């Protein structure tokens, strides 16, 4: 396996995450993101020396409904005509229209689109919900709950992506427009 060096400025990553944390106590933020309070304290505490892990950044991305790239690299200005596909253009429109002075908290209790994508990929692989549960070590009721549109934690999403052999981006709806368009046609 080839090592690839990526230069990430963790001070800027932390600033973007802490901007999202404004108005939350550490405990409330940990609950929103779906991590333990000690993780938040180790990263955001007064004497913190730990950089955020990619898993933590992913959890923040899922909880805030902002792309992981936003936290890693910051807002990027694109010229719409240069964007690769319609989904990216739509995301750029959504994130460029956000007024940072207004509260943009989004309820994450329901995610019916992710449920559709999990079911689509599971059925495409010929797996039953019970087989996915057995392979992933997750309860079958949790798989069915996700497919029904209920939100879940980042760890579960990672396990599902690994079990279903698909990308986390696909499950979160950040994947290629052509795959999502095919999914919408099938359902």
**Uncertain runs with pLDDT below 50, 5 residues or more?**
78-85, 94-98, 100-108, 176-183
The total of beta strands comes to: 0
Helix content: 55-70%
**What is the C-level CATH assignment of the domain at 10-73?**
Mainly Alpha
Radius of gyration: 18 Å
The averaged pLDDT comes out at: 75
Shape: globular
- CATH-defined superfamily of the domain at 10-73: lambda repressor-like DNA-binding domains
Note down, in words, how this protein is organized:
The structure is a single chain. The protein is mostly helical and 187 residues long. Among the domains are: 10-73, Orthogonal Bundle (434 Repressor (Amino-terminal Domain)); 112-172, 434 Repressor (Amino-terminal Domain). It has twelve helices and no strands. Residues 118-171 form the HTH cro/C1-type domain. One of its GO terms (molecular function) is DNA binding. InterPro entries: Cro/C1-type_HTH, Lambda_DNA-bd_dom_sf.
Task: Give keywords.
mainly alpha, 434 Repressor (Amino-terminal Domain), globular
Structure, briefly:
Helices cover 59% and strands 0% of the residues. With 187 residues, the protein is mostly helical. Among the domains are: 10-73, lambda repressor-like DNA-binding domains (434 Repressor (Amino-terminal Domain)), CATH 1.10.260; 112-172, 434 Repressor (Amino-terminal Domain) (Orthogonal Bundle).
């Amino acid at each position: 396996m080839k090592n690839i060096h990526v230069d990430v400025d963790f001070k800027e990553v932390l600033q973007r995450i802490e901007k999202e944390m404004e108005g939350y106590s550490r405990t409330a933020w940990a609950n929103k993101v779906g991590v333990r309070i000690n993780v938040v304290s180790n990263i955001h505490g007064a004497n913190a020396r730990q950089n955020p892990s990619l898993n933590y950044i992913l959890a923040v991305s899922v909880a805030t409904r902002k792309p992981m790239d936003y936290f890693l690299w910051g807002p990027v200005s694109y010229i719409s005509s240069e964007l690769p596909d319609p989904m990216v253009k739509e995301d750029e429109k959504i994130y460029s229209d956000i007024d940072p002075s207004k509260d943009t908290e989004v309820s994450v209790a329901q995610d019916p689109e992710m449920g559709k994508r999990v079911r689509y990929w599971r059925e495409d692989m010929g797996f039953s919900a019970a087989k996915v549960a057995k392979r992933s070590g997750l309860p079958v009721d949790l798989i069915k709950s996700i497919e029904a549109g209920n939100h879940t934690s980042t760890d579960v999403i990672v396990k599902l992506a690994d079990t279903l052999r698909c990308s986390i981006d696909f499950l979160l709806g950040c994947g290629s427009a052509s795959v999502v368009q095919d999914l919408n046609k099938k359902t």
